[in-house]
Write the structure tokens for this entry.
Amino acid sequence: MARSHTNTFELITLQNQLLLAIGDNLNTRECMHTFMQTALKELDLKSIHLYLFDHSLPDKKSFIHYLSIPDNKLELRHKLTLYKTLLYFKNNRGKTYLSETVESNEILAYAFNSHGVLLLEKEHDTIQPAIKDVMVPVINRLAEHFKICEQQKRLNKEARVYKKTQRTYELQAKRDPLTNLPNRREFRYALSKEISNAQRYDHYGALMYIDLDNFKNVNDSLGHSIGDILLTQVALRLTEQARSEDTVFRIGGDEFVYILSNIGDTEVEAIKTSQTVASRVIEILAKPIEIGEYSLHITPSIGIAVFP
């Protein structure tokens, strides 16, 4: 049975209930869903729908469906009336609401500011004229809140993009652009941290400096593009054989550095372990590096310093 609101108190109560349903939720879809559920119940509607204008599209496709409760069958049942109503509001911005009767059902359409149209479908009945007027400030408030929600959503998206961009810049500032290894700046920070840890926990670490012999000859004879590929392949081999707790850095040109972390409780043990790692580095770099038609053989010069 249709709910009736006959006096001023009931109209004010209805208006307040609908205004409260708007709430302060800044999630656009959740806010609209809550309001539409409340309106569906309080006005005893068959369905309620929100369509938004897309001003980038031609008139015949100038709107997009945003949300319907309980379903979007209105578009199937009364497609022509729906399209005419939406186009009417798009072309007549000053209109507040419009009522159409189709097959004993009333379709009451409200301008949703400049965003679109909110449609209320009443089955086998009409909505009281007083309620239609009471709904105007409610719909205006809802449309304004919708706008705020959408603005907040855009701001949140922009903030996420900004944070992602900042993280990218921060990472780039710490990375060598050619090999993607940590760079000299990051090496200094990591070394300071490792020395502090070694002093605190009473263990030893080591630095292993790696310089590629005669790398300049590769650049001079084969070109910098081949030299760059060679450096990336060297970086890949070094990182693939490194322990998970060790870090490889490129500090410039053909210079690489290992930080070997916690490799012994005594200096003698640390030296022995770092020499073992150095031998392994020499072994993996001794294998030819194939670049196109070239088979390159490189040897490293390695220096070791233990800390703290």
